[in-house]
Design a protein that fits this description.
Strand content: 15-25%
Subunit structure: Homodimer. The monomeric form is inactive while the homodimer is active.
InterPro entries: CPQ, Peptidase_M28
CATH superfamily of the largest domain: Zn peptidases
Shape: elongated
Main location: endoplasmic reticulum
Keywords: Carboxypeptidase, Endoplasmic reticulum, Glycoprotein, Golgi apparatus, Hydrolase, Lysosome, Metal-binding, Metalloprotease, Protease, Secreted, Signal, Zinc, Zymogen
Radius of gyration: 26 Å
Number of helices: 12
Subcellular location: Endoplasmic reticulum; Golgi apparatus; Lysosome; Secreted
Number of strands: 14
Mean pLDDT: 95
Largest sheet: 11 strands, mixed
Length: 476
């Protein structure tokens, strides 16, 4: 009997210990979620992130990949982040092929002579001095060009007149951008002398959208330029050219000048809120520091950098350290081919297993309306708990199919859990890659809601101890 009683007491003690541990874990989780909510509330009054964007776009301006301006931005960011008190602030260097426009004009010649408003696409080859002159051949879709007979294209300037669909998610961009990337290669392969596209944008203003082309050679390595000159027409000029073509043959003079170099310096700027007990585990918040040269890179992607810096600084101001390290990465040379994201993945290959969560802000500064995840099946309850905190800030739960963002796509493909705080992109592509990408396009309250969301989920990820890779329980 005594042995039975002792066994019963042992079982009771073990049960009590388990219950106490569970209660302690629940209390800790409740405290983490409560602090995350307090951080989000503080984010609605943020000035740190918004000031970061204002100063970057005012004091530095456009930051073309590989240019002296991008280097000035890196130096500026290091000084700012150091002064703000972040830890381990440094630059991780790499090189990129360099391209810069020097001049760009297009003009219809002949009886209907008139200028066309264009901008060269990043990586465009130059025209001969004085420009080139050729007849236009129009295709409604990239697929139509791909299916065309070479004889119908050879010696002509290809014009792809494909529209972009406006959506809240920005989903229309993925389809529309294909023509920008592929037109020069496809057209050159059929003997064309140049390529024009309707701008990849949703506006109807008379200012074109730039953006990069596919300039990889047969070896897969990116070159400074693609095979032929390439430019984007503003939407009204694309309409004008289409109307002229309805009336007969059209000849255009295209004149593009560029400067190039096989290799130019670039780099990623790193700053951290150093963690405590599990400081080797990393929650990564990313953006890209470079921009195209037409505007001042405010919504693409100065805003993203301000959002992640503002969110990280809110956490840094808490008493004590977060359990895990929060790493802010201001990626370089995203616009010309995700060079910064690839460089980071290479340089940190040995520690990717320590990256517990990653996210990137690179879709402007409008309100976040949905929170997507890409977690292990056993971590979906964690997603629901984060989404529960974010719901009070107007953020709806999303699915578990998040991509994370352009620069951290390589991390997601390597198995790092990612989240996508999805911003409202309804008018983002009205300004994207244009001279109108300027600081006045940022609405402060929407920007601050972004800071709130990033601060909340980043803190939860850093402090909760949750395993976002957790597989499903085989007994479920």
């Amino acid at each position: 009997m005594r042995l039975i009683a002792l066994a019963a007491l042992g079982t009771l003690a073990a049960s009590h210990t388990f219950t106490a541990a569970a209660e302690e874990a629940a209390d800790r989780e409740a405290q983490v979620l409560e602090t995350a909510t307090s951080l989000a509330n503080a984010g609605t009054w943020d000035n740190v992130g918004l000031q970061f964007v204002e100063d970057l776009t005012t004091e530095i301006g456009p930051r073309l990949a590989g240019s002296p301006d991008e280097k000035r931005a890196r130096d500026w960011a290091v000084a700012e982040l150091t002064e703000m008190g972040f830890a381990n602030v440094h630059v991780e260097d790499f090189t990129v092929p360099y391209w810069k426009r020097t001049h760009e004009t297009a003009r219809v010649v002949g009886a209907s002579a008139q200028p066309l408003i264009i901008t060269a696409l990043g990586g465009s080859a130059p025209t001969p001095e004085g420009g080139l002159e050729a007849d236009i051949v129009r295709f409604e879709l990239l697929a139509d060009l791909q299916a065309a007979d070479d004889a119908d294209v050879a010696g002509k300037i290809v014009f792809i007149d494909e529209y972009m669909t406006r959506t809240q998610t920005g989903a229309g961009y993925g389809l529309a951008v294909a023509k920008r990337a592929a037109c020069p290669k496809v057209a050159a392969g059929k003997g064309a002398v140049a390529c024009l596209i309707r701008s990849v944008g949703t506006d109807h203003f008379r200012r074109p959208h730039t953006g990069g082309i596919d300039r990889r050679g047969p070896d897969g390595v990116a070159k400074p330029t693609g095979p032929i000159p390439a430019a984007a027409l503003s939407a009204p000029d694309a309409d004008q050219l289409a109307r002229l073509l309805e009336r007969g043959a059209v000849t255009v003079n295209l004149d593009i000048g560029v400067e190039t170099a096989d290799a130019a310096p670039s780099g990623n700027v790193i700053a951290e809120v150093e963690g405590g007990a599990n400081k080797d585990e990393i929650v990564l918040l990313g953006c890209h520091l470079d921009s195209w040269d037409l505007g001042t890179g405010a919504i693409d992607d100065g805003a993203g950098c301000g959002i992640v810096v503002g969110a990280a600084k809110l956490i840094d101001q808490l008493p004590g350290k977060p359990d895990r390290t929060i790493r802010v990465v201001l990626y370089g040379s995203e616009e010309i081919g995700l060079f910064g994201g690839d460089a980071y993945a290479r340089q940190h290959a040995d520690e990717l297993g320590n990256h517990v969560l990653a996210s990137e802000s690179d879709h402007g500064a409008s309100y976040i309306w949905q929170f997507q995840t890409k977690f292990g099946d056993g971590a979906l309850d964690y997603a629901k708990k984060i989404q529960g905190v974010l719901a009070r800030y107007g953020v709806a739960p999303g699915d578990n199919l998040a991509g994370g963002g352009p620069d951290i796509g390589v991390l997601a493909r390597s198995g790092v859990p990612v989240v996508t705080p999805a911003q409202d992109g309804w008018d983002y592509f009205d300004y994207h890659h244009t001279p109108d990408d300027t600081f006045d396009k940022i609405e402060p309250d929407a920007f601050r809601q972004n800071v709130s969301v990033y601060a909340a989920f980043a803190y939860i990820a850093a402090q909760s101890g949750w395993d976002f890779r957790k597989p499903a329980d085989p007994q479920d």
